[in-house]
Amino acid sequence: RASLAHLAAHFDTQTKPSHRALADAQATAEILLILLAMAQERGLHTLEEVARFCEPSARRNYHKIVLTEPLPAGPGVYIMQDEQRRPLYIGKAENLRRRTRDHFLQKQAHGARQALELLHTIRTIPTGSEFEALLLELRLIAQHKPPYNDHGTRAQSYQYVKLTAEEYPRLYATPNRLDDGAVYAGPFRKAGMARRLVDCLNSLFPLRTCTRMPAAATASRDLSGKAPSPHACQRFALGACLGPCRIPLNGEYQKVVGEVSHVLRGEYQHLDGQLERRQEEFAKLLAYEQAARTRDFRETLTAATRTIRRLREALGVYAIVAYPAVERHAVALWGIAGGQVVSREEAWLDTYSQSDAAALVAAICAAVPPHPPLPPEAIDEVLLIGDWVRHHRSAPAILELPPPGAGRTAAALTAAATSLVTRLPLFCKDCA
Predict the structure, then answer these.
(1) Which residues have CB under 8 Å from 407's CB, separation 6+?
(2) Is the pTM higher than 0.70?
(3) Taking the C-alpha atoms of 135, 136, 142 and 145 in order, what is their torsion angle to the nearest 10 degrees?
(4) Backbone phi and psi for residue 70, each to the nearest 5 degrees, phi listed first
(5) Domain-wise residue ranges, the chain
(6) What is the CATH number of domain 52-152?
(7) Integer Cα distance of 255 and 233 in angstroms
(8) How far apart are CA 301 and CA 308, in angstroms?
(9) Is 172 in contact with 200 (CB distance < 8 Å)?
């Protein structure tokens, strides 16, 4: 460990420490000034950056920070590439230079450190806004699938909860959404969430869980060649299944299916009220284990329905999103229909007219966006747009349009076009 005397000798300070307060303080101040100058030369401006630089893993790749020096300070997307120009990591930033420097100056996960080891060049794509950077980042990650990106690759692991369209439906988790008449909930980013919802609903409702519908004991053999068992399953014996394979049902099973369908569509307030009362009753009876289990059911249903509603609301977005374009005196306009981008154009302040705005509004309203089942890679973008519109709904950048229905009148569309023209100067770079 270096002492003050060793440091003073190394840096050849004018004042030499002598175990006297004044001399030692003056030597320390000289050393501090020298170290601050060295930190500034290396681009270190904060105490956190200096502390990070002192870690061996950071110093190993720190010399590559020079790659960030020529980068722009505006919003955009950056692509970290290896020696063969293959994407290692793709990210977005409000300030490209500052964000890429953070990779060298902040603690990184193992994958990010590996990317820095292989880093050879940093390519940037400037955008006019953070919104455009988010969209571009998502699309580039889906296109290139960089090895060190986790965000943006969730589509491959999405899971749905499916209530089949059989005569006596059953419930299970699946990665695939088909156009087969079944009721689907999701998608859920974590398979565990989908499985918990299935277990929760199968515990609360007497649905069958068998993968093939057992027939009566006298029925013919199934496709596997095995005769169906004449014995009832354990769920039926415990009263956890209505047993459509064993006893005639007069609409009871369809009633249960209807209740489950409501939950899968995000409508569970009535069920939550029942569970809340049940939880309170268990607590009064000191049945704490059952009360805790009921509480867990409520938490699962709350989290699941939040996810279900999020996608449903995102698919209902009809809007124009306006932000500055990269070019001066231009505004980028995104047309959103059904939560998906159906158009993008640039409006020039000195030429954009009411008729141009009316044509854009009409085109968005006439667009027929793809309906579910959506391809997995489209889901992230729909959710991104839905979240952005929800969080920035009160901002002038978001001009919501009437959804399909009675509210989409000619007067409403004309008012939307007029509002768009009025707002344009707010998003034009360098406009007085």
Answers:
(1) none
(2) yes
(3) -140
(4) -85, 0
(5) 4-41, 52-152, 319-427
(6) 3.40.1440.10
(7) 22
(8) 10
(9) no
Written as six digits, the tokens of 336 are 């959103």
Residue 4: name the closest of 32, 34, 29, 24 by CA. 24
306 contacts: CB under 8 Å, gap ≥ 6? none
**Residue (of 19, 311, 9) closest to 188 by Cα position:** 311
CA distances from 30 to 45, 49, 168, 332 (A): 19, 21, 83, 53
Which value, in Å, is the radius of gyration of the alpha carbons in the chain?
31
Query: Alpha-carbon distance 195 to 188, whole Å?
Result: 10
HEC sequence for 174-198: ECCCCCCCCEEEEEECCHHHHHHHH
Consecutive sets of 10 residues in the chain, 432 residues long: mean pLDDT of each? Answer: 81 83 87 84 70 65 86 95 94 93 75 83 95 95 88 67 91 90 89 93 90 53 46 73 76 90 88 90 91 93 92 92 89 94 91 92 88 79 94 92 84 92 79 50
Residue 416: how many other CB atoms lie within 10 Å: 23
Instruction: Specify the long-range contacts of residues 217-224, CB closer than 8 Å, at least 24 apart.
Output: none
